[in-house]
Amino acid sequence: MALLSITDVFLLIAAIACVWVGIRRRSSSALKLPPGPPRLPLLGNLLQVDPARPYPQFLRWAQQYGDVFYLRLGLQDVVVLNTAQAADDVLTGRSKVYSGRVAPHVAHEILSEGQRVLFMPYAREWKIARRAMSAAAGPAAAKRIREFQDMESRTAIYDLMCHGAKIDKETSVASAHDSSAHEVPEGHWFHLIRRFSTSVPMYVTYGKRVNRIVDNPQMDKVYDVVANFTRMAQPGNYLADVVPLLRKLPDWMSPWRVEAKSRHEWEMGLFGGLLDEEKAALRSGTVRDTFLNTYLRGRAASGHAEAPGRGLAGDVWMRDKMLAYTAGSLLEAGADTTATALLTFVLAMLGNPGALQRAREEVDAAVGAERMPAFEDEERLPYVVACIQETLRCHPPVIMGVPHRADEDDEYKGYHIPKGATVIGNLWAIHMDPVRYPDPTKFMPERHLGGPPLRRAGGPDPEGRAHYAFGFGRRFCGGKDVAEASLFILCARLLWGVDFRAPADPATGKPRVPDFADEDGTWTTGFIAVPKLYDVEFAPRSEKCEAIIRRSFEELQDEWKDMGLPEDER
Ligand code: HEM
Q1: Does an H or E element contain 13, and which?
Q2: Is 5 helix (H, G, I), strand (E, B) or coil?
């Protein structure tokens, strides 16, 4: 008989572990698990889920099983909540129990050395990091940040206007639909949006800005880090994530560990480098009201000027590595998500000319032609706000949300939720629920008008939320107010001053607008569903708008200097 291969041994270990988990699970509760698709003995439902694009299948199961269903992915229990009511009841109403994460071993323990906020368990370290982030990007801070967003959006609409009808030959026509959104060429208009969306968290966190539209290696690396991190965190990528015994193997038998360690050093090149730059700025007397500078000053004043290593110093202050990752988390969590929402907004507008026209009419009537819209106009632009809300509902950037963890055994609607289960608030199914959102695949901003104010996406009341794109409970997005402000100011100004249209298809003469409903053709796979590269032609809406945008951009250069920030290099 042939000797067992390494794979056979792994499978054997996994099988034994499965049986063991199964026995424990059966004995731990008298209640049934929620209904769900039939499972294979060892793999559970693993083979039925496409890890790169799970949400269409999860929606089909939601339609079949109702507001809660159960899966087993390898050894992992997974409970999926598919209606706003169920997700609110469990993830928000019982957030003391459901605020943990099931962290993937390779991406969290090795790649991030356990320091990445997004995957931290619901424990002291997370609370300390989260409190610090709220001070920098929470609702109160978001009001202060608006001045910077106002300025950056003036640069962004100038860039888009000047981009004009430029079509990137490399990305247009056939290849446009193949390109990964993580490899956006510098000449493409996606890059202009990314500059804006990255500059905002860059300023909030480090007091720096992205002032060029080409040659931004630091900005490009942010997107590379996000792409790599989400790839490594993808369920099913590493056997060591599901078979803990493998983690005991030495490095020479564990190429995944060697790769993750080297990627950790690479990430620290960005996050650690930015921390070092801020420390140096502080030493040379730079004091600014930004996350890292404020934190380092507070830490030094408490006697922890130098705090190398991981975790907490004195149980209160983040040490350097945790601090570098927490700062980096603001950057990586804020950049790609906001850019994606903006790219999705333009796509939604192109596909819905009626909504675009109504939004423009509202802006014109409320603001007039003599000035561009400002934050103060928001109350008078309910339809524009509704278009943004509907964009986030129709295709939320983090399309499946970020899974939570059940930290205790629990019961919901008579079903058992096992301790340690991954609990997913299935954003996509919630947003496609025809009871809550009649005709859910239709882009209908008017569904958000009237009734109670729906601007607040947070809070426990399912009736008061326009959408769930920012997640649930205590793990709710840490930068929602900053994100909403970025979206509002850039979208309102774009609608006011810049005409945008899809280029005509040379074969048919008709505008080439990617089909919003074509998941495979139009959207990238992965944790963040980004529109695949598509071309847009931009032009000033009128000579007056052009003059105002140009003058505003020119005046801005002195304002950057006054703030001690670099001018725009064009
Ligand atoms: C349109 C833009 C954005 C969207 C759609 C979005 C969405 C999300 C979602 C779905 C989560 C997970 C929530 C959960 O676990 O239930 C999250 C977490 C987070 N977001 Fe955002 N986000 C956006 C922008 C931002 C910005 C601009 C920042 C910071 C400046 C930010 C910072 C964070 C942080 C720090 C977390 C981690 C929370 C934790 O695990 O405790 N996000 N976001």
Answers
A1: helix 6-28
A2: coil
Could you identify the atom of ligand 1 that is nearest to the CA of residue 117? 40
Q: Is 163 exposed, middle or buried (0-12, 13-18, 19+ CB in 10 A)?
A: buried
The string of DSSP codes covering 70-139 is: EEEETTEEEEEE-SHHHHIIIIITTTTTS-B----IIIIIIISTT--GGG--SSHHHHHHHHHHHHHHSH
Reading the block at residue 78, the tokens are 């997974």
430-481 pLDDT tens trace: 999 999 999 999 999 999 997 655 555 655 566 778 999 999 999 999 999 9
Please tell me which residue, 527 or 362, carries the higher pLDDT value.
Answer: 362
Residue 371 to residue 331: CA distance in whole angstroms:
31
Q: In Å, how far are 14, 17, 47, 239, 243 from 6, measured between CA atoms? A: 12, 16, 21, 12, 13
What is the pLDDT, as a whole number, of residue 169?
60
Determine the distance separating the centroid of ligand 1 and the alpha carbon of 30, expressed in angstroms.
37
> What was the pLDDT predicted at 184?
86
Non-local CB neighbours of 463 within 8 Å, separated by 6+ positions: 452
Helices 382-394 and 353-367 cross at an angle (nearest 10°) of 150
Atom of ligand 1 nearest to the CA of 392: 5
* Ramachandran angles phi, psi of 132, nearest 5°: -65, -40
Q: Please choose, from the candidates 221, 197, 339, the residue with its C-alpha nearest in 3D space to the C-alpha of residue 273.
A: 221
What torsion do the CA atoms of 353, 359, 362, 363 make, to the nearest 10 degrees?
Answer: -120
Confidence of residue 165 (pLDDT cuts 50, 70, 90): confident
How far apart are alpha carbons 303 and 299 in whole angstroms?
A: 7
Place of tokens 């079509």: 167
**Mean pLDDT of all residues in 287-295:** 96
Nearest CA to ligand 1 atom 25: 334
| pLDDT, tens only, 72-130 | 988 899 999 999 999 999 999 999 999 999 999 999 999 999 999 999 999 999 999 99
Residue 477 assigned as binding residue? yes
Name the percent of the chain in helix, strand, coil, to the closest 5: 55, 10, 40
pLDDT of res. 20 = 53
Interval between CA 391 and ligand 1 midpoint (Å): 17
Angle between the N-to-C axes of helices 189-206 and 291-301, in degrees from 0 to 180, rounded to the nearest 10: 20
Structure token pair of residue 522: 């139009």
What lines the ligand 1 site, CB under 6 Å? 117-118, 130, 133, 137, 201, 204, 329-330, 333-334, 337-338, 341, 397-398, 401-402, 469-472, 475-479, 482-483
Q: Which long-range contacts (CB under 8 A, 24 or more apart) does 377-384 make?
A: 377/492, 378/488, 378/492, 381/492, 382/449, 383/358, 383/359, 383/445, 383/446, 383/449, 384/359, 384/488, 384/491, 384/492, 384/495
Q: Evaluate whether 202 touches 136 at the Cβ level (below 8 Å).
A: no
Looking at residue 30, what is its pLDDT? 82
